Amino acid sequence: TRRVRARDLVAAKERGERWPMLTSYDQYTAAIFEEAGIPVLLVGDSAANNVFGYPTTVPVTVEDLLPLVRAVVRATSYPLVVGDLPFGSYEEGPTQALRTAVRFMKEGGCHAVKLEGGRQVAEQIRAISDAGIPVMAHIGFTPQREHTIGGYRVQGRGDAADEVVADARAVAEAGAFSVVLEMVPGEVAKRITHELTIPTIGIGAGPDTDAQVLVWQDMAGLRSGRMPRFVKRYADLHGTLTEATRRFAAEVRGGEFPTAEHTF
Ligand code: KIV
Ligand code: NA
C-alpha cells in the first residue's frame, strides 16, 4: 500500500470515515503504529515534554525535532508523517514560516507540517500551502501560547465559541488540509466539523470530530501520574517497563542473569 496523502484524508471525510492519529518520535513506535494501521503520525513539538523532559513545548527547537522526524519517516512507508513547527519558528511571518516548513520537508522528509494558531497565522498557512506543502492547523488550546492563555484551559466556552469558529474558518480559507481542535467543548467541535469540508482532528474535543489524536505515551500509559480528562489509557507501559526493569536488576544482583544460554 502506498503512503497516505493529505488529499486521502479529505476524501475520507467525504465518505464519512473517521481515522486515528498518534504522535511518534522514534523508529520503534513509528513501525508499531504503522503495523497497527494508524494513517497519520505527528512528530509533535510535544517531544519537548515527552522526549526531552521540558515543562512546556516552548523550549524545543527545529534542530531538536528534525532528527525525530527523519527517524519516523525512515521507519515507515504507509502513514502520512506530519512535522510540528516549534515555537519561534514561524511567528515572525510568512517568510519565516515557509523557510521553516521547507526545512522540515527537505531535511526532515515529512509529508506535511503543522503549526498552532487561527486567524493570527492565516498568512503563514497561506504561504506554506501555496508552496505545495500540506498544512495541518491547530486551534482551540494551543500549548505554545500557554503562558498567555494561563495554563491548560478549555477554549471556546460560551460566547468564546464564535472565536474558535472564526479561527476554523480562517485556517480552512487559508488552505489548511485539516485542523486539530484541542480542548474545545464537544458542541463547538461538532459545529466546526459540520461546517468545514476539511477534516477536524480532536483532542479533548468530544466524539464528533472526523479524527482523534493522542500523545502516544498517554494512550499507552507510559507516562504516569495525573492525566488530562481527555486521555484514555489503552495499556500500562509504565507498569510493564517498571516490572521488567525490576526483574532485570534483581536477576543481575542475584547472579541469575546471564546464564549459560546467554553466554558465548
Ligand atoms: O505536539 C503534539 O503532540 C500535538 C498534538 C497533541 C495535536 O500538537
Ligand atoms: Na504540538
UniProtKB/TrEMBL annotation:
Needed cofactors: Mg(2+)
Cofactor note: Binds 1 Mg(2+) ion per subunit.
Main location: cytoplasm
SUPFAM superfamilies named in the record: Phosphoenolpyruvate/pyruvate domain (SSF51621)
Domain of life of the source: Bacteria
Positions of 3-methyl-2-oxobutanoate binding: 45-46, 84, 114
Keywords: Cytoplasm, Magnesium, Metal-binding, Pantothenate biosynthesis, Transferase
Record InterPro entries: Pantoate_hydroxy_MeTrfase, Pyrv/PenolPyrv_kinase-like_dom, Pyrv_kinase-like_dom_sf
Pathway in which the depicted protein is active: Cofactor biosynthesis; (R)-pantothenate biosynthesis; (R)-pantoate from 3-methyl-2-oxobutanoate: step 1/2
Pfam family, one: Pantoate_transf
Binding site for Mg(2+): 45, 84, 116
Localization per Swiss-Prot or TrEMBL: Cytoplasm
Record-listed E.C. numbers: 2.1.2.11
Substrates-to-products reaction catalysed: (6R)-5,10-methylene-5,6,7,8-tetrahydrofolate + 3-methyl-2-oxobutanoate + H2O = 2-dehydropantoate + (6S)-5,6,7,8-tetrahydrofolate
Active site: 182 (proton acceptor)
Functional summary from the UniProt entry: Catalyzes the reversible reaction in which hydroxymethyl group from 5,10-methylenetetrahydrofolate is transferred onto alpha-ketoisovalerate to form ketopantoate.
Similarity field: Belongs to the PanB family.
Record note on quaternary structure: Homodecamer; pentamer of dimers.
Listed NCBIfam families: panB, PRK00311.1
Protein name from the UniProt record: 3-methyl-2-oxobutanoate hydroxymethyltransferase
Organism in which the protein naturally occurs: Plantactinospora endophytica
Gene name in the database record: panB
